[in-house]
Amino acid sequence: MKAPIRSNPMLEKLAPRPGRFALLPELTARQELALFCRALHREGYDDHIAGHITVAEPDGTFLINPWELAWDEVTAADIIRVDGDGIVIEGQWNVTPAVGLHLAVHKKRHDLKVVLHNHSRWGLVWSASGRVPPVYDQTSGQVEGDPVFYDEYAGSVDGASEAEAAAEALGQEKWALLKNHGVFVVGKDIRQAHLRAITLEHRCRLAWHVETLGEGQPITDPETLRVAQMSDDLGFPFLWEAMARKEIRLDPRVLQGDPTSAIKGKAK
Amino acid sequence: MKAPIRSNPMLEKLAPRPGRFALLPELTARQELALFCRALHREGYDDHIAGHITVAEPDGTFLINPWELAWDEVTAADIIRVDGDGIVIEGQWNVTPAVGLHLAVHKKRHDLKVVLHNHSRWGLVWSASGRVPPVYDQTSGQVEGDPVFYDEYAGSVDGASEAEAAAEALGQEKWALLKNHGVFVVGKDIRQAHLRAITLEHRCRLAWHVETLGEGQPITDPETLRVAQMSDDLGFPFLWEAMARKEIRLDPRVLQGDPTSAIKGKAK
Amino acid sequence: MKAPIRSNPMLEKLAPRPGRFALLPELTARQELALFCRALHREGYDDHIAGHITVAEPDGTFLINPWELAWDEVTAADIIRVDGDGIVIEGQWNVTPAVGLHLAVHKKRHDLKVVLHNHSRWGLVWSASGRVPPVYDQTSGQVEGDPVFYDEYAGSVDGASEAEAAAEALGQEKWALLKNHGVFVVGKDIRQAHLRAITLEHRCRLAWHVETLGEGQPITDPETLRVAQMSDDLGFPFLWEAMARKEIRLDPRVLQGDPTSAIKGKAK
Amino acid sequence: MKAPIRSNPMLEKLAPRPGRFALLPELTARQELALFCRALHREGYDDHIAGHITVAEPDGTFLINPWELAWDEVTAADIIRVDGDGIVIEGQWNVTPAVGLHLAVHKKRHDLKVVLHNHSRWGLVWSASGRVPPVYDQTSGQVEGDPVFYDEYAGSVDGASEAEAAAEALGQEKWALLKNHGVFVVGKDIRQAHLRAITLEHRCRLAWHVETLGEGQPITDPETLRVAQMSDDLGFPFLWEAMARKEIRLDPRVLQGDPTSAIKGKAK
């Protein structure tokens, strides 16, 4: 592979060949975030303009998608930067008032680079049902453990104390169902957050279909998922790259407009 | 933002930045209505050529989509104008006989500019179930209160007395489920009617998924929705603009043909 | 309207205006049939290459879509003509062995011009459930009466005696659910057959959603549907034209290749 | 027909006409496999980059889609070749570690040319439900017999002994549901494997819809399916060709890049 993928010792042995083309072009952080928004929109994270993703940068600032745009239209040029107080310091758009929730989590979890919240289609169904969906297949089991079910949210995501309470409830976990309010997913990088977000939606969708049929047999033996769960830590080989590539193929404008990009598309 | 958005005192403080591009081009009333038809068609208001939207103009006339066309093909040039008796006074198409229902509501509700009726996918399911769907998430709760469930409709929408009865049943409310016949939504402008229409469809869809799973926990504490419900009155920031922008992006012809438009597209 | 629509005395009074453009171009019989295949495929009549539509011509022959092609790819040039014994007499493709079922119906029903069979998505569900779906909304009730539920089909549609038995079972009715085998719809012309086919699929889809929710309130008072049911006989104004127009807009090749057409597209 | 179709004695009698155009262009083995991946992705075999298809070549090697790419993007140029031990001997991409499962089946089943595994949408639902879906319509019954329900899979597809156990469980059968892990389909060629794969997904989807409605009447008389089941052995006439043609129509790049192809498209 010409494009860098996350270091995975198994992959060097299992996939030594370079590939017919680079899995992805070299991407700036803004391009990667714009692709992430679009890829998740396609998976069901599509409640109009709801939802935000923050990416922690090494200098203590954060990239975030703007308040004004839907996830399926955002381009690299639209990504804004906020400081640790959520004040916009780069970019022309505005930041959601809900940024406080993201910042509260980043403050407690320096192991994380990515924090995302949205009202995904199937995640919402279980968030309104008061239950965590069982793991009904191997794909659902790629991320170990159940989401936190956080049921004390009281209607707003802009109040500081509520944001802190939510961050507290997440604790050291990977993901959460917010009662009557969607999902919350974090990760050490976009590849990991992507796998967790699509796994959660898959798990919620499959479990609904299985349980409405009425005879589900969830996976209960943890050994069954041992190999699958290596994906969460090491990365599912090639998966994020394929999904990002699809977005570029379907609308190359997603990469446009980042002045630091090798692909210097004109802003739309 | 360069494009005018509805005055919202909170927004001036929360979103002071002008944006990388105008949220929407300046739109004529006809263009706005054509965009509204298309955006709702994409959300599930798609029963072939059923459904109409009237927009009250300051001079006592009404703009309306023509009888002959589906919501996903209408352009600004297709919008017609009727007088207070429902007689076409501008445009080349014909008006639905169902216009009487709209006019009866406009007559009683001078606080409203927009009246819409259609057979939306999920709205129909609940309209046939004899129940109002509970509010299972924050998005469903953006519009305060339950729809009127109007169950005395007797099969036709063109009789004057039936239209008056329906207008009577709506009273001072925002929306209604028409038993075995779809939905009815009104608003003080297109932004408000848009939020109500998509919220109703979302609420109906989510509630079906939650209740078929069998363990729904609806939101019952009104305080939970306090912030979300500010959207109905003040407008959900940037939402309508994003959905209208999507329609322009996917088919710019939607704006064509309005002689009063700044964007003077040729008629198809 | 510049394009001819079926004579409907009410329409002359209700829709006197000519329209901004013709509702449809003048269509040959082959173009109309190709459009019908495509429009129904989009509505759920999409079981791969299954399904055929015959159109009786004044000279005792029949137009039919070819055996080899899917409904979503057929063009005017692909339509073939068979004689009263089902022998191909015009066109380059082959005819389905299932044509016998169609011919058996045409033989008994000289009031009909159109006979169609397919395995539509929602029609199949009810055909496998042993029940006719109740009428849960006005749109479902546009066609008066329940489909015949024909449960003696024994696996093949090419045997003459089975075809006659099926034709016998249909009798003077408009439509049928074939047990474990899809649907059967007839009409005096394509406009009527189109309305019946989309109404059946709508009725089946809505009824499934209502009954899985569990509290359906079907329409039982026939008076409720009196106006809606005028559509079956007189035609639902402008509906077929809008759906055919959509197919032309999305893929104008559908009209190509008919040597008798005013629009002389080149064969693909 | 100008393109070769599988020899079917009935077809020579029933479909003697050559057709208006070739059903498919002449295809190389790589092009056929790329088309197969894309056609199944469209039918619900779409769990991101999961799933592989092996095609046995006369020289004892196997063609397979690469590990790195999703089924909806693969082109002829991307197909790789492995030897009997699963070592890549042609092509630039890498092979999935799951190839062992495929090779174990090919080793036991010299009657087969094609082995495929994926996590199809509706297949997964039943695989998690512990039951084989009944046959609720004729289309579902085109392939005789129930899938093997293999429930001893223990979490990995890369261990040799597990691969052999799975091959053992499949035995001489056509298809299997892998508990909590998707489906497994084999065939003597791509046409047969295609029919089996789409039939399994159709059967799973329909059965779910019928059983959630609650009153299913499965087909139990084998005589009912006698004619339909001829398709599995003789091939469903024209079906594979139509589905492959659709992929070419929607994205002709699928054929590109195979140096042995008559259609010498440039690699993307």
Q: Summed up, what is this model?
A:
The structure is a homotetramer of 268-residue chains. By secondary structure, chain A is α+β, with helices and mostly antiparallel strands.
Describe the structure.
Chain A has 268 residues and is an alpha+beta fold. Chain A has one domain: Class II aldolase/adducin N-terminal domain (L-fuculose-1-phosphate Aldolase), CATH 3.40.225.10. Chain A contains eight helices and eight strands, in the order ααββββαβαβαββααα. An eight-stranded mixed β-sheet of chain A has the order 4-3-2-1-5-8-7-6, with helices on both faces. In chain A, α5 links the parallel β6 and β7 (175-178). The longest helix of chain A is centred in the last third of the chain and has 24 residues, at 190-213. Chains in contact: A-B, A-D, B-C, C-D. Chains A and B meet through α4 and α6 of A and α6 and α8 of B.
Throw out a few tags for this protein:
homotetramer; 268 residues; alpha+beta; L-fuculose-1-phosphate Aldolase; 8-stranded mixed β-sheet; 34% helix; globular; disordered C terminus
